[in-house]
Amino acid sequence: MRSASSQPLSGIFEVPGDKSLSHRALILGALAEGETVIAGLLESADVLATAEALRAFGIRVERFGPGRWRVIGGPWRSPEQPVDCGNSGTAVRLLMGAAGGRGVRATFAGDASLSKRPMRRVTGPLEAMGVRISGGDRLPLTVEGPVTRGIAHLNVPASAQVKSAVLLAGLGTDQPVEIAEPMPSRDHSEIMLGEFGVEVERSGPLIRLGTKRTLDARLVEVSGDPSSAAFALGAAAIVPGSEVTAKNVLLNPHRSGFVMALQRMGADLAMANIRGRGGETIGDVRVRFGPLFGAEFTPEEIPSMVDEIPILAVVAAGARGETRIEGLDELRHKESDRLALMVEGLTACGIHARSEGDALVVQGGQIAGGATVRTEGDHRIAMSHLVLGLAAEQPIMVDEAEMIATSFPTFREAMRGIGAKIDEVAA
Ligand code: S3P
């Protein structure tokens, strides 16, 4: 795909359903007694991998309309074939925990990128809970329940996927299950488990499962994904004359770091219609173009915008002065080494960017563009550079755009809907 300097962006941006909530809605539905109905499910490759995996565990998962799905929870069986989680870290890590808790045996596999990502962070605590693991730090590996012991787990580095795996495994025991989080990570699992009737106690940095660990099926409405909305909001912030609104976006404080970052950099940003839905906070976010200034971000701020660092780096390229983002070690373990690829892509487009240890430093300035950016199949690297192209002097091309479908299959149409010039080009 290729993007080019655009007229002002304007209008309402069609935000797809949140990826984290979509995975959790399917998995919790599969663990619940009865029929769970989901509205607004993100129908992206990652989420479809979770749906397919649950079928392999013997669960009925059906689509009955756009974004409308039904999951009939019940006993899980051990799949005969390896469960393919594609590109999705959330799918594999949450499902390993759930499978352990359900006492089944499964081999998990993934694509080339997922097969390079660390899994010991999940299998370590699961093993401590009595789950049998064969394999090392990388996929493929086999998980065999049941869970025979509780755990007091320290969630370092802050990972919602690991925390969720421990909680889901913990549903399979009545022993104490406790997680301490020195740096809080997204808490959707705790919130959604609570909505499904599980007792989850939270006090400060501690999360504990209570005595009721069974789930009651329910209706789940999935709100808009702030990580996807970030591309349009970031674009509006750097394309002169723009004004864009993203509606019904999840505004959970552990996911709002990017919106806060835009504000800190001086963006003209407003939130409206703030309200609750399914235990979460949601609302509308509007961004108008205006002068932006470089800012500093500390490691404590990263978990609340961990997936938005690539687009934050793009916004920093459009700001005056230097932006410094500290504490990005975890970025090296995402769908690609995002720290390295952002430095490479921004530099190719004429921006001064460098990594210093696990910090990213971006010097805002004229965006020359006129480059083809290497994405290593990472959807967020691709989308971020396509946004950069909207504010560049020359078009920017990304080498692989198919992987955008892992999290945001409607990205191009949604961006074109606000006036962005993004085209598919023949390979
Ligand atoms: C996610 C947690 C984060 C995030 C990922 C989704 C989740 O990963 O980067 O895209 O849904 O729990 P970590 O748990 O590795 O921080």
Number of domains: 2
Q: In total, how many beta strands?
A: 24
In the CATH hierarchy, what is the superfamily of the largest domain?
A: Enolpyruvate transferase domain
Shape: globular
Bound molecules: shikimate-3-phosphate
Main CATH class of the largest domain:
Alpha Beta
Q: DSSP helix count? A: 12
How confident overall, as mean pLDDT?
Answer: 98
CATH fold-type name of the largest domain: UDP-n-acetylglucosamine1-carboxyvinyl-transferase, Chain
CATH architecture of the largest domain: Alpha-beta prism
Give the proportion of residues in helices: 25-40%
Task: Describe the 3D structure.
The chain is an alpha/beta fold and 427 residues long. The protein has 2 domains: 2-16 and 223-423, Alpha-beta prism (UDP-n-acetylglucosamine1-carboxyvinyl-transferase, Chain), CATH 3.65.10; 19-221, Alpha-beta prism (UDP-n-acetylglucosamine1-carboxyvinyl-transferase, Chain), CATH 3.65.10. It has 12 helices and 24 strands. It has a 4-stranded mixed sheet. A 4-stranded mixed sheet has the order 2-15-17-16. Strands 4-5-3-14 form a 4-stranded mixed sheet, with helices on one face. α9 (309-317) links the parallel β18 (296-297) and β19. α1 (19-31) packs across α6 (188-195). The chain is globular. The model has no long low-confidence stretch (mean pLDDT 98). Bound molecules: shikimate-3-phosphate.
